């Protein structure tokens, strides 16, 4: 766990920013008073859950000073760009889901990265053959226009109460003064060591002196601090129409590779015009009813809302609370398999593809697909998709196609405030370490988000809505979710994990809502992930369980994954308190905090 005195620095920095605008700021806590990272907390005044204690503390400081959930979410995300730079940052993008307590409405921002205007379906092909994934990943070709800074501005302009400059101050100071390296940060650096060493700016920052960062040492990023300060002074135009963007384009078009490196690093075709043309999308969420509740999530270009929603619609026809553990997991796996088959055929960027979102989320379509599930046998993957426009009972439509690969990194945060506003926000640079390209002098890694496109159609002759295209957003699995009961928040949840995000969010929701697990236990429960593949991934807790043998007797096949996702959530308790929940062990454990843990202020 990261026990960090630098949490204090973030609080002091934010206090200074708030005082300068006349807002009341909380007194700084005594040096050394930072608590251990804990996975669950309950209290009043608001809550924050993220993977990192420094980031959660930045959000809590905003709530204590009178900021709302949107303000706190931006401050938390900016801090994660410092302490979780291999998962998120201003070189990436994401999806922001917001519940407004006054209007009782859920609204969303699509802040997904976009492909250059010159991109074609063969972006990742040479001589008609897809290049290896790892070569696409570590290249300028994989870099999409970052959407995270624009997402922050859009959210604050629409629903926030503080300026972007104010909300960047804690992260700016955290980057300048440093945070304490923990085992997770070192392990993620080691995972990327071979890539990082081939880029001098990346190696200088993350491999100081050519060595891995030492656990317990202080990691500083003065270039990122200066970049945040510039964004704070000049606004996001400094990136989309100014010098930060020019530096991004230069790094993409001529990747700064060590001349002695033997790695093949392809250039990209990103231009300053692509950056100027970028815009976030304010759009309606997906919505399904489940057990009398309303479940809202992210519509395409993310597949999260449609795929989680379809699976919930399938599962609602069965009382999961009364099933044995074997039958409960069997139903969950099969519903996931079916919804992923339909996702692969139908979901892409709706600006470029005809995505039947409403039909995918119809109960009629779910019923036509759910009748494929048998209690005593397993479906075979890849499973053919259905046609949501013309549902046929227990039928498929067209040829089956396997699910394409997605990297498994990203980060998620959830926030609630004293007024009842809630944010569920997932952001990413795609793979752990992104493209491995650090923008020279800027202190942040660029995304490899365009590798979320299919490099070629998943199966010959099968329509694929997720091929690259000009200005197109690659399909995502991010599933930031908010659940309401008669217009009031019940819980919010989300996770990193590439395509496993969908199954993690689905399993967390049904674990809590159907099986009655406390939210922190639903998050901690061992996970399974079936994504229309021949085998289902299992974490060790299920792999080593008698349940595996019982499921195999039904025809299920498995492979082991040591860790799936890293969820966080917030929940409104019946007595009016907020509960924040995070991982107990995954990624070294998460950080849950509330403003007033001891009672009403």
From TrEMBL:
The catalysed reaction is:
glutathione + H2O = L-cysteinylglycine + L-glutamate; an N-terminal (5-L-glutamyl)-[peptide] + an alpha-amino acid = 5-L-glutamyl amino acid + an N-terminal L-alpha-aminoacyl-[peptide]; an S-substituted glutathione + H2O = an S-substituted L-cysteinylglycine + L-glutamate
Q: Name one Pfam family in it.
A: G_glu_transpept
Keyword set includes Nucleotide-binding: no
Active site per UniProt: 410
* Location of the region described as Disordered in the Swiss-Prot/TrEMBL record: 378-405, 457-478
Q: Does the keyword Nucleotide-binding apply?
A: no
Gene3D superfamilies for the chain: 1.10.246.130, 3.60.20.40
Gene Ontology MF terms in the entry:
glutathione hydrolase activity; leukotriene C4 gamma-glutamyl transferase activity
Pathway(s) served: Sulfur metabolism; glutathione metabolism
Q: Which UniProt keywords apply?
A: Acyltransferase, Glutathione biosynthesis, Hydrolase, Signal, Transferase, Zymogen
Which SUPFAM superfamilies did the record assign? N-terminal nucleophile aminohydrolases (Ntn hydrolases)
Q: Where is the signal peptide?
A: 1-25
Tell me the protein family, please.
Belongs to the gamma-glutamyltransferase family.
The molecule here is called: Glutathione hydrolase proenzyme
Q: Which gene encodes it?
A: ggt
């Amino acid at each position: 766990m990261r026990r960090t005195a630098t949490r204090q620095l973030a609080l002091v920095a934010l206090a200074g920013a708030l005082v300068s605008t006349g807002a009341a700021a909380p007194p700084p806590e005594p040096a050394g008073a930072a608590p251990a990272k804990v996975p669950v907390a309950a209290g009043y005044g608001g809550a924050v859950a993220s993977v990192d204690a420094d980031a959660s503390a930045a959000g809590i400081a905003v709530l204590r000073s009178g900021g709302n959930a949107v303000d706190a979410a931006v401050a938390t995300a900016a801090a994660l760009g410092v302490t979780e730079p291999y998962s998120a940052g201003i070189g990436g993008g994401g999806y922001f889901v917001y519940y407004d307590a006054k209007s009782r409405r859920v609204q969303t921002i699509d802040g997904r990265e976009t492909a250059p205007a010159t991109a074609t379906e063969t972006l990742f092909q040479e001589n008609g053959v897809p290049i290896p994934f790892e070569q696409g990943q570590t290249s300028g070709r994989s870099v999409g226009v970052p959407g995270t800074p624009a997402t922050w501005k859009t959210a604050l302009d629409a629903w926030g109460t503080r300026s972007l400059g104010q909300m960047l101050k804690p992260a700016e100071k955290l980057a300048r003064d440093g945070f304490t390296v923990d085992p997770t940060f070192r392990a993620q650096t080691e995972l990327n060591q071979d890539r990082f060493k081939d880029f001098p700016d990346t190696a200088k920052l993350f491999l100081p002196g050519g060595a891995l960062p030492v656990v317990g040492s202080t990691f500083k990023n003065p270039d990122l601090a200066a970049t945040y300060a510039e964004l704070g002074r000049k606004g996001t135009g400094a990136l989309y129409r100014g010098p930060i963007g020019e530096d991004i384009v230069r790094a993409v078009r001529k990747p700064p590779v060590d001349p002695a490196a033997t790695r093949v690093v392809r250039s990209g075709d990103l231009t300053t015009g692509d950056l100027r043309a970028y815009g976030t999308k304010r759009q309606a969420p997906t919505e399904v009813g489940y057990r009398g509740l309303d479940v809202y999530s992210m519509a395409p270009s993310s597949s999260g809302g449609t795929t989680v929603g379809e699976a919930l619609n399938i599962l609602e026809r069965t009382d999961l609370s009364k099933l044995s553990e074997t039958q409960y997991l069997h139903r969950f796996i099969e519903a996931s398999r079916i919804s992923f088959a339909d996702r692969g055929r139908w979901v892409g960027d709706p600006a470029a593809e005809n995505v039947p979102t409403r039909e995918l989320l119809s109960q009629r379509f779910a019923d036509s697909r759910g009748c494929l599930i048998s209690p005593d046998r397993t479906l075979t993957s890849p499973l053919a998709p259905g046609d949501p426009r013309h549902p046929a009972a227990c039928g498929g439509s067209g040829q089956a196609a396997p699910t394409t690969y997605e990297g498994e990194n990203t980060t998620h945060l959830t926030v609630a405030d004293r007024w009842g506003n809630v944010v569920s926000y997932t952001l990413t640079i795609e793979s752990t370490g992104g493209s491995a390209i650090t923008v020279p002098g800027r202190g942040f890694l660029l995304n490899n988000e365009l590798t979320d496109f299919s490099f070629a159609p998943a199966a010959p002759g099968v329509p694929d809505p997720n091929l690259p295209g000009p200005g197109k957003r690659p399909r995502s699995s991010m599933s930031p979710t908010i659940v309401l009961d008669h217009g009031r928040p019940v819980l919010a949840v989300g996770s990193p994990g590439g395509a496993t995000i969908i199954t993690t969010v689905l399993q967390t929701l049904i674990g809590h809502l159907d099986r009655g697990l406390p939210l922190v236990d639903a998050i901690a429960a061992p996970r399974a992930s079936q994504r229309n593949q021949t085998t289902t991934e299992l974490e060790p807790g299920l792999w080593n369980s008698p349940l595996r043998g019982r499921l195999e007797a039904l025809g299920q096949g498995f492979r082991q994954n040591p860790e799936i996702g890293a969820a966080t959530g917030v929940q409104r308790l019946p007595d009016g308190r907020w509960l924040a929940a995070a991982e107990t062990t995954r990624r070294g454990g998460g950080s849950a905090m509330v403003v007033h843990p001891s009672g009403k202020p």
